[in-house]
Amino acid sequence: MRVAIYARVSTSDKDQDLATQLMPLREFVKSQSWQTYNEYSDQVSATDIVHRTSWRELLSDASKRRFDLILVWRMDRAFRSVLDAATTLERLKTWGVGLRSYTEPWLDTTSPFGEVLYYITVAYAQMERSILRERVKAGMDRARKQGMQIGRPRVTDRRGFNQTYGAVLERLKAGELSRRQAARELRIGYATFKRLLDADKGRETN
């Protein structure tokens, strides 16, 4: 059996290493007396499909039936959502290519039972993420109702900011500072400083 090995780590997690996935995958292929067609690996987020060049190359080779099975460390290394997984699986079935997870051995689309468990697992993972998002949203809504600050505090809420802003504004009007210099003195971005100025102008107009 010709096997394509795929590994992926996210750039946001510096503790991950592609070798952690690739080494046991190679050993597993050898233990099964399979033939490794090629190894594909990406170091990018699962959702960043544009930069997952190796994954796209793997699918292209799969469409040409250059191997019989894709072996991954875990299913979430390959797919970004349940819909993505289901769509890709249908394409692989059309091409006659199977999919197997090393750490989830029951997920093997080359068997009918494994295919059913595969769909159940990816659906459950998606549901779990949805429940977590709903819990986070509910917690944020409750915090807002209780008057708690959500997200970053506004720059104008910083202690002493309004007094410093007033002094810097006077120097700006006197021509002692440029807008960018004023923003640096206030330790805020130029765009933020411009928004504050625009808001002041709007109040003056009203």
UniProtKB/TrEMBL annotation:
Pfam families registered for this protein in UniProt: Resolvase (PF00239)
Keywords for this protein: DNA recombination, DNA-binding
CDD domains tied to this protein: SR_ResInv
Domain of life, per lineage: Bacteria
This protein's record includes keyword Cytoplasm: no
Resolvase/invertase-type recombinase catalytic domain ranges (all copies): 2-147
Cleavable signal peptide: none
Keyword DNA-binding: yes
GO molecular function list: DNA binding; DNA strand exchange activity
InterPro entries, per the entry: Resolv_N, Resolvase-like_N_sf, SSR_resolvase
The protein's name in its UniProt record: Site-specific recombinase
